[in-house]
Every structure is written in C-alpha cells, then in structure tokens.
Design brief:
Residues 2-29, 30-57 form the C2H2-type domain. The protein has helices spanning 14-25, 42-53; strands spanning 2-3, 10-11, 30-31, 38-39. It is an alpha+beta fold. The chain has one domain (2-53): Classic Zinc Finger (Double Stranded RNA Binding Domain, 2-Layer Sandwich), CATH 3.30.160.60. 0% of the residues are buried.
Length: 69
C-alpha cells in the first residue's frame, strides 16, 4: 500500500496516491480556456466546460474522452 505523508490515507496504487496528494498542495493544473477557472481534476474541468457549451443537462460524461452519452 502507498501511504500519504500528509494524512492517514492509503492507496493500493501509486497513481491514486499521486492524484490524492494534489489535494494537499492546492495545485490546480487543469484550466478552462474560456474563463481561466482552474481545477484539481481533469474530470472537474470537463464537467465545467459543459456550461460554456450549453450542455447543462445531466448526462454521462466519459472521464477518458470527455464525450457525453
């Protein structure tokens, strides 16, 4: 298991720990090209971008490709 040095959280995959550690540093690497708002997670940015595209209806948003279904 991979343990976070900042809190009690532990993860079975190193990639999960890496994603979690962003919550401690406040890093927001994903920025909206329309309004410059930034997000910690890519999926959060993709959901936000639907506002600019006029797609406010609830739909499945694929975290891999960003397409709605």
């Amino acid at each position: 298991p991979y343990k976070c040095s900042e809190c009690e959280s532990s993860f079975s995959h190193k990639s999960s720990l890496s994603k979690h550690q962003i919550t401690h540093v406040g890093e927001r690497p994903f920025t909206c090209g329309e309004c410059r708002r930034s997000f910690r997670l890519q999926i959060s940015l993709l959901m936000h971008q639907r506002i600019h595209a006029g797609k406010n209806e609830m739909a499945f948003l694929c975290p891999q490709c960003g397409k709605n279904f």
